[in-house]
Structure formats: C-alpha cells, structure tokens
Amino acid sequence: MSDQKHHQASGTSDQHVSAGSEASKGPSRRSFLRAGAASSLAMGAGLLAGNKAAATGDPAILELQDWNQYLGEGVDARPYGTPSPFEEHVVRRNVSWLTADPISSVNFTPLHDLDGIITPSGLCFERHHSGIAEVDPAQHRLMIHGMVDKPLVFTMEDLKRFPRENHAYFLECAANSGMEWRGAQLNGCQFTHGMVHNIMYTGVRLSHLLAEAGVKPKGSWLLAEGADSSTMTRSIPLEKALDDCIVAFAMNGEALRPEQGYPVRLVVPGWEGNMWVKWLRRLEIGDAPWQHREETSKYTDLMADGRARRFTWVMDAKSVITNPSPQAPLMHDKGQTVLTGLAWSGRGTIDRVDVSLDGGRSWHAARIDGPSLNKSLHRFYFDFNWDGKPLLLQSRAIDSTGYIQPTKSALRSVRGENSIYHNNGIQTWHVKGPGEVENVEVS
Amino acid sequence: MLKSLKTSLAISLLIASAGPAFSEGLGLGRTATIDEVSAWDIDVRPDGMGLPEGSGTVIEGEEVFAERCAACHGDFGEGVDRWPVLSGGQGSLTDERPVKTIGSYWPYLSTVYDYINRAMPFGESQSLTPDEIYGITAYLLYMNDVVTDEEFELSKANFTSIRLPNEDNFFFDPRPDTPIFKATDPCMSDCKPEVTITSRARVLDVTPDEDDGGAGSID
C-alpha cells in the first residue's frame, strides 16, 4: 500500500521533470499512459456527476474538486509562503477617523481570526509616529552613553555576540480599548482590543549591554531612542532596564519585521507598548526622567478632577472573548459550541479566567489551554451547549498577584472617562442569535 | 588540600555556569567618539540639560511657525483637521471634551523644544536651527498666554525660568486602584438582580466598513 503511494508520487514528479525533455522519453510515455488512465477515471466521475439525481449527499463529497484532480504549484512557486487566498480577509485594519493621517497612526490585530497564543508576525498591530523606517542593518548602530564608564557603539553583528534568550511576551498599547471609555463604540474585538500582540522574541539582555558600558553609581534612568524620523524616546527606570528588558532582533524565529522595528527593538515586558522603542539606536543613562512628549503630553492619564497620572507603565490584567464577537458571530443554531478568548497581565501569569453568559449575574470557570507564560497572552476556552437564546458574554481574568479584572463602571468610578489609556474593563458582547453579535455595556 | 582544591574547582565551575563574567565585560562594541555622541545626543530635560546655545523672539517665531508649522497646526496653533491643537484649552481639563495643549496640559517647556527639534516638521525632522526652535517655542508660549510680551526672547539662559501652568497637576501612578482577589472574593452566582443593556455600539455606528464618519479620538 505504501509502496503503491510512493510509486504514484514519483510518477507525478516524473511528469513535471520530463515535460519537453528528450532525455526522459521513457518516463514521459509512462506519464502519458497514466494520464490516459486518469482521464477515463475523470469521465467516470463526470458520468457520476451527470447522474446527480441518483446520488444524495454533500456535493463537497459527491463532486470532484479541482484540487482533487489537478497538480498544484511546485516548491519553487512560493519561496516565502503566505496564507491561503481563502484567508485573505484575515488582515490588520485601520480606523481612519482616529488619527490625522495613516503615517502617524495605528492599525489593529484581527484577534477574532486567530487562535493559540502566538500572533503571526504579519498580523501584529502597527503603531508608527513617522511611518515604517526601512533601516539597512549594515548601517544601523546602537549607542550607549551618558552616565557610563565607557560610551559604546555596537553593530548588529556585535549585538548577536552577546548571550541570547528567547521569551514570549505580549505587547499592548496603553490606548487599547481607549475608544470605549465613554461607552460601547466599536463593533469588533479587532477594534476594541486589537492593539495587542504576543511574540516569541530572540535577543540579548539589556543588562548585559549596560554592564559592558558600566553604569555609574548615580545612574537611575535610561532614555531609549529610535532611528525613525520621529526619533521617538521614552524614559525607563534603570531598575526595570536591569530586571527583564531585552534588546530583540528576532520575532517568531525570524528577523523582526520592519513594522516592528527591524533590525532591533526594545522589549519592556508587561509595560505599555509605547516604551518598546522600535529601530532602537540609542540608550542614554541619566539621573532623572527626560519628560519627553510620549510621557507628558501623551501616555499620562487624565482623571475626572483634571489632575493626571504619570508613569503609568504596567499593563493591568485584562481579557476579551474573541469568539463569538461582532466580527465572528455564531453561525450555527443551538447546540454544542466553543467560546474562546485571550487573557494577559503585565504583572505575571493568568491564574484564572471566569466566563459569564448572562452579563455578569453568574460566572463559570473557563479552561486555560496552552502555555501559561509570564507576561504572555493566555488562551482560554469555555465549551458549552448553547440553547439558542440571546447571551450577554463577559470574561474576567485574575492574575498571579490576585488582581481581578474590574468592570468598566468600577474603572470609571475611580478614573472618570477622559483617561484614554489603561482601559482594562470587562467587555460585554450581546449574542442576539445566530449571525449577530453586538458590542454593548450592561448594568 | 585535596578538599580545598575541590572547593575552588567547584567555585570556578559555579562562576562559569552562572554565565559570562559581566563585571569584566565581554569586550564587545567599541568606544563611541565625542563627535558621535554629540551627533545623536539631542535630548533636552526640564532642568535644561541638553539645551543648545541660541535664542528667538515671539515675532521671529511667528514667521517660522507660519512657514513650517501652520499647514497642520493652524496659524495660531488651533490645529487643522485632526492635527494636534497646540494652544488654548486652559480650564478645560475637567470638561467632557478636554483640550490638552501646551498651555492647558503639558507640564514642562523643555518637552516643546525637545519634540520640535527631534520630530518636527512632520516628514522633515531635524531641519530647524536652534534659533528657529527657540523662536517657535517663544511664539507658542505667547499663543498660550504664558508670556504676554511679543518682544519676549527665549534663550538658553532664561529657558528654565519659564514654568508651564499645569506642572503641579501630575502625580505618580497609584495603581492598582480597584479591588484585588486577596481582599475581595469574586462573586460567582446571583451577582446582580437583573441585567439590562445600557450602551450599544450600534448607536454611534462608527465601526470601519460601516460608516467611517467618526466620533472621539485616541489622541
């Protein structure tokens, strides 16, 4: 049986190789004979199709599909593979009214089309301040200076000679769900929660680079700067820089994508995405924060009393049901179904996710499946028998520090509605019936 | 004797397995030259660290602003389309729609200089001279009523004497600011009497692919 399969397979490749080749007449003749046999089979199938009235069942089974019969492309056709054309709807999307133009803007990860915990590299949401810098790695340098014993310059080759580490970390924009502070606004978890992604990074510890330069005793802050035309900067306390920050050059096993900071970006685990400076070119050690635009005018959280929180770095525990959701409603009638979603915390791992089908009146423990990694997305499932009636779906995450994801009204009672950033409130989806889900809020 | 040898061997193995001896360094990278550091070290801090020599008046700044900035920010910093508003908004931070500008919100003037220098004009960054940036910054102070004399000249010498009105209204992150599990057991059943829908995305209808009209902003 397996011999026969092998023979057929090599026969197929013969057909490819021999086409138009004098040297391989023999195989060509054999292929011709085999092709003749195949076409008589196809005629048989055609007759079968013509007698449709006699056959009952699924046309996907009863009728021969093109891919059942004809050859596909060879190994040279797709040197870098892309998804099936049937998946072409699975893309990042922009909300054009959010920003003045698409250069300094943001798009969103299609969370409702994904599963597991790792975000495919080409679907990670993008946030640029001056567009995508196309950096030549041979011309890229990383400089460390300021309050150090020895100011240093590294090439990409130099960086790759430090001991490497691999870590999966989520990156969430502090403004994720920011459009929902004043009430339900966008119909789709791509738009309400899609400024998050989860990547397996390869890189070197920032602490190793800093040790090489020798931080002076009074150094307590670090300024990270990018090489794009916004030369974006953020101040990071040295304690965090030495704790777990990574200077990463690879994502999901390959070089960083240009949209994610190729050739090198800063990874600041658990803290807001704006600090993960892309196209990283400079690290300065100082004794005070720089109070630059991204930590004063932006990424400060305005409270109801007109005062504002600064240095709100950590991303609190959060979760969202990705399916069903407005872009991915239940398409079947009542019966067994799968509810799934994502949960994460900038303070550690997720201990537990609860799911409600009735808008938070009662809760059920969801099943976390797959790796539970520090400061990484967690995938949860809740398998249940749907009675076909409307549902008010919610999820509630509890992290390893005991922090409970709050309701939106609990957040608003503390912070008001103008803080833009750090909205980690519980999301509600209204499943109206098959084919329709809406973003709502409940009492 | 043998024992002490064993111990010292164990210690050296321990050091080896703990990773490279970073205190001594790995000998990677090379020393940056003074010129290289000054080419990239453009950052400015609230205490004035990083400010270059130079100066500019409100009137000088107005001219540069009209030519290099007003297409997006408007002649008076009022903002064109969705480009940032730079002036006005004082007293609006507790409003339903606060207007966060240099005068109403930003805590430090150094941020204005630093940001213009590193990132503006949009698409032509680092093309302004220090005198031009001092002038633009002086003009923005004037547009925000922080200075009222159009003859005012901003310079490296007087820069740190200027304070923005909202500086004292920032405070350090107090989170977590909602209950944690150790204090509150999360409710599992009969958590509320009845549930009604209080807000619907459909009402605004601003989801892309439906109506790209728009309401609100993430900033």
Strand composition percent of chain B: 5-15%
Residue-averaged pLDDT of chain B, rounded?
A: 87
Largest sheet of chain A: 5 strands, mixed
Distance between the termini of chain A: 64 Å
Find the CATH superfamily of the domain at 55-168 in chain B. Cytochrome c-like domain
The chain-level structural class of chain B is mainly alpha
Low-pLDDT stretches of chain A: 1-49
State the helix count of chain B.
7
CATH topology-level fold name of the domain at 55-168 in chain B: Cytochrome Bc1 Complex, Chain D, domain 2
Count every helix of chain A, treating DSSP H or I runs of 4 or more residues as helices.
9
What topology emerges from the helices and strands here?
The complex is a heterodimer of chains A (443) and B (219).
Chain A: H1 2-18, H2 25-50, H3 59-62, H4 66-69, E1 93-94, E2 107-108, E3 142-146, E4 152-154, H5 156-159, E5 164-172, H6 189-193, E6 196-205, H7 206-213, E7 221-226, E8 233-237, H8 238-243, E9 246-251, E10 254-255, E11 265-267, E12 280-286, E13 301-302, E14 308-310, E15 318-323, E16 335-344, E17 350-356, E18 364-365, E19 367-369, E20 378-386, E21 391-399, H9 408-415, E22 428-433, E23 436-442
Parallel strand pairs in A: 3-12
Antiparallel strand pairs in A: 1-2, 3-4, 5-6, 6-9, 7-8, 7-12, 9-10, 9-11, 13-14, 15-16, 16-20, 17-18, 17-21, 19-20, 21-22, 22-23
Helix pairs in contact in A: 1-2
Chain B: H1 2-17, E1 30-31, H2 34-40, E2 55-57, H3 58-68, H4 70-73, H5 109-119, H6 130-143, E3 153-155, E4 170-172, E5 197-200, H7 201-204
Antiparallel strand pairs in B: 2-3
Helix pairs in contact in B: 3-6, 5-6
